């Protein structure tokens, strides 16, 4: 049983094909226990005490070990010092890339931006692939967004294409300038096939009409608004440790959950985002298509719940 417990503890660090959503530590995001490896170990030890300690001390040991697993304090974290509009859209995936609806979706996004400008927001965040276009090929749209960025900072998802290669990207417009951040970590078997070249090409040919995998950035993308350093994340990569390396103040994540509606995927994603927010002490501003947009902050500690 001790060996089984050890294997269960270690399973969070086994990522087949790079997919890391089987995370037992995240189970403790709700409740009073700390969502980390040490707390998980204390909880397994407490359970095993009930079976292997034969005297009355087992209940004292059980309670003491559980007490060690409780999260008492809330991690320190920063929030954006200005008003941000987190846009939320409900575009079904089967319609998102319909060519006849392209201009309609663009106009809807521009209207959302205008509303945010009129409401006095400093920045607006639109979801992953909010603009169903290759932004690198849309001169008129880019010019319009640059013009609007004189009044509001804009972050929006779209595709990019360069030298025959496609990227899943987020575009940042502020004060008449544009910055592109390409996705750093792709979804296994969604945006890339993590297999040797011969198998990858065969799968792409059979299931994806010969399409190539997306290309990736060489490092996570950062940008600044009024001196605040922001880490850019696109959907799945916001639930990867690699995106939390280096120095930054807050994370802005954009997601398209239209692929998964209706399903429990958005709830699992929300739990994992809060797990990483807690682990690294970061606020995550999450703009989503298909499920609610929200600001995700680190889990509150037990002492803060009752004494603050």
TrEMBL record:
Checking InterPro entries in the record gives:
Apolipo_AcylTrfase, C-N_Hydrolase, C-N_Hydrolase_sf, Lnt_membrane_dom
Q: Which GO terms describe its biological process?
A: lipoprotein biosynthetic process
Record the organism.
Campylobacter showae CC57C
Per UniProt, the keywords (alphabetical) are: Acyltransferase, Cell inner membrane, Cell membrane, Lipoprotein, Membrane, Transferase, Transmembrane, Transmembrane helix
Q: Which residues form the signal peptide?
A: none
One short Pfam name that applies is CN_hydrolase
Provide the protein name. Apolipoprotein N-acyltransferase
Q: Name one GO molecular function term.
A: N-acyltransferase activity
- Where's it mainly located? membrane
**Location(s), subcellular:** Cell membrane
Record-level GO cellular component terms:
plasma membrane
Q: Which residues form the CN hydrolase domain?
A: 87-308
Q: How does it sit in the membrane?
A: Multi-pass membrane protein
Q: Which E.C. number(s) belong to this protein?
A: 2.3.1.-
Its transmembrane ranges are: 32-53
Q: Cite the NCBIfam families for this sequence.
A: lnt
Q: Which family, according to UniProt?
A: Belongs to the CN hydrolase family. Apolipoprotein N-acyltransferase subfamily.
């Amino acid at each position: 049983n001790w060996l089984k417990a050890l294997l269960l503890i270690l399973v969070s660090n086994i990522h087949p094909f790079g997919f890391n959503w089987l995370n037992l530590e995240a189970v403790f995001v709700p409740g009073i226990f700390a969502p980390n490896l040490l707390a998980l170990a204390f909880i397994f030890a407490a359970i095993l005490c009930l079976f292997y300690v034969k005297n009355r001390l087992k209940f004292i040991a059980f309670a003491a070990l559980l007490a060690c697993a409780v999260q008492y304090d809330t991690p320190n974290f920063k929030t954006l010092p200005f008003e941000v509009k987190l846009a939320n859209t409900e575009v079904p995936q089967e319609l998102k890339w319909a060519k006849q609806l392209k201009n309609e979706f663009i106009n809807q996004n521009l209207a959302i931006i205008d509303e945010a400008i009129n409401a006095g927001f400093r920045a607006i965040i639109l979801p992953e692939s909010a603009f169903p276009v290759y932004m690198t090929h849309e001169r008129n749209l880019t010019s319009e967004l640059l013009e609007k960025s004189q009044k509001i900072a804009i972050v929006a998802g779209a595709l990019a294409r360069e030298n025959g290669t496609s990227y899943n990207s987020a575009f940042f417009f502020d004060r008449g300038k544009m910055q592109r951040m390409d996705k750093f970590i792709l979804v296994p078997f969604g945006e890339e096939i993590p297999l040797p070249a011969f198998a990858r090409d065969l799968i792409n040919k059979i299931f994806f009409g010969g399409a190539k995998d997306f290309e990736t950035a060489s490092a996570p993308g950062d940008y600044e608004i009024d001196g605040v350093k922001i880490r850019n994340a696109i959907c799945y990569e916001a639930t990867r440790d690699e995106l939390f390396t280096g120095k930054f103040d807050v994370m802005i994540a954009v997601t398209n959950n239209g692929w998964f509606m209706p399903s429990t995927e958005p709830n699992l994603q929300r739990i994992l985002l809060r797990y990483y927010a807690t682990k690294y002490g970061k606020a995550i501003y999450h703009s989503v298509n298909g499920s609610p947009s929200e600001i995700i902050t680190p889990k509150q500690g037990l002492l803060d719940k009752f004494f603050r």
